[in-house]
Amino acid sequence: MASQKTDTINLTTYDSPVGTMLIACSKAGLVSLSYLSKGRKPKNLAKVFAQKYGVAVDRLEAAPNVHTDKVCAQLDRYFSGQLKTWRLKLDWQLVDGFRKAALMAAAEIPYGSTSSYGELAAKAGSPKAARAVGTAMAQNPFSIVVPCHRVVRSGGEIGSYGGGTKAKRWLLDLEAV
What we know:
The protein is of the alpha/beta class. The protein has two domains: 4-79, Double Stranded RNA Binding Domain, CATH 3.30.160.70; 97-174, Winged helix-like DNA-binding domain superfamily/Winged helix DNA-binding domain (Arc Repressor Mutant, subunit A). The chain is built from six helices and eight strands. It has helices spanning 45-53, 66-79, 97-106, 117-123, 130-138, 165-174, and strands spanning 4-6, 9-16, 19-25, 30-35, 55-57, 60-61, 115-116, 151-152. It has a four-stranded mixed sheet with strand order 4-3-2-6, with helices on both faces. The chain has a two-stranded parallel sheet with strand order 1-5. The protein is globular, with a radius of gyration of 16 Å. It starts with a strand and ends with a helix.
């Protein structure tokens, strides 16, 4: 991914049942919801974000904003089984091209359902690009919100997941898939 430049990004963490997550929001909305490495929380969230995405940012603030607060509130509802449809503004600045098309197709997978990599490739306009869909899912900056955990192998196996296969199984069980 090419280095990009953006305005102020507000960062906060969220302790979920499947691991600690880093939430990054701009004025436009959610830029990233990603798993932090297992173990302790890093002291410098700004450095973690900048290194992960290769983004030059005018200002990184380790403080919540209106969007991070909304993300946390909706995550609380999701993990308690009360939220089935996300109502968040997404800032797609870290995503473009086919990867964006694949992630937008994944965003349409209904709660409690799954889709295969091949099915998503077709929906994204490239029916033979199942492997590229796998790469897009692995680089999903909106973990859980754009539900790459709902993407499974064509044989029904759950496949890999950025948060780990245990987290993927937990999320699918939460959604009763």
